[in-house]
User: Fold Uridine phosphorylase from Erpetoichthys calabaricus.
Amino acid sequence: MAPILLDNITPERSEYIEHEEVHVKNPHLHSMEEDILYHFNLSTKTHNLPEMFGDIKFVCTGGSANRMKAFAEFMQKELGLDGENGVEDICAGTDRYSTYKTGPVLSISHGMGVPSISIMLHELIKLLHHARCRDVVLIRIGTSGGIGLEPGTVVITDTAVDSFFQPHFEQVVLGKVIVRSTELDKSLAQELLQCGREILNLCTVIGKTMCTYDFYEGQGRLDGALCSFSTEEKLEYLRRAKEAGVTNIEMESTVFAAMCRVCGLKAAVVCVTLLDRFKGDQITASHELLQEYQLRPQYLVSHFIKKRLQLL
Ligand SMILES: O=P(O)(O)O[C@H]1O[C@H](CO)[C@@H](O)[C@H]1O
Ligand SMILES: O=c1cc[nH]c(=O)[nH]1
Assistant:
């Protein structure tokens, strides 16, 4: 078994320092003449990153490219910005991620699962660093499976946990396992919860979010191509998750929380639940209802952004 190390590049407690530029935790980066953000099709030599991105204060990210485009269009309207030509994908030169900027809001897709969001976050955090951004808040707006919650509930994550219900993210580096904390910013979570409460008919709760490496077996589903457990074993696992404080399950929150924390970035996860996993595995809601569910975290985060910008 690989040796397990607690993260040795993270200080004891990674504190967010107000008004400081976004920093990266990589001593090699400063000696590089050029930094190519390959999956964004951007580079420090070919693009003026401070001019293009220096005013970003909010980064919102979610798995689907269409959702993040829709969110950018929505924010354009909400912030009263000129939207005659719609929004344009800044990284159109690559189809790995879709990126839109509307005023101080960057909307970017991350694909599905830990490896995909982790690559995006490496390049995003370097982008924010090269652009000399300050006081940036990162929010994942996503979907999830609920544990004992009414479908359509919006969950604000207080801590992301792994499949053992631990607040950890494990990264294999040079054949060793590095364990990083997945605690999220508590006051930001409370601020978002308050925003949820201010929106009529939006059911918002706070709880732990479990992040898995798979949608099927990894989330205890009985309907994948493989399944090695019984219905009773599945329900027992979900009951144990619920007892540990888990309210929903998705596939990116631990690495998102861990990477933002190491780099001193304030981060939050806001996911709507598409089903109650105690009641089933298949997502049976209609397309229209699922579309409406996906808008709920967007409304909440838009409300939060407008409050922060003192537009409300
Ligand atoms: O709806 P988004 O944000 O894409 O995320 C959730 O949906 C995907 C699975 O359907 C996973 O990536 C999970 O985390
Ligand atoms: O059950 C679900 C629903 C959405 N996303 C997940 O990861 N799981």
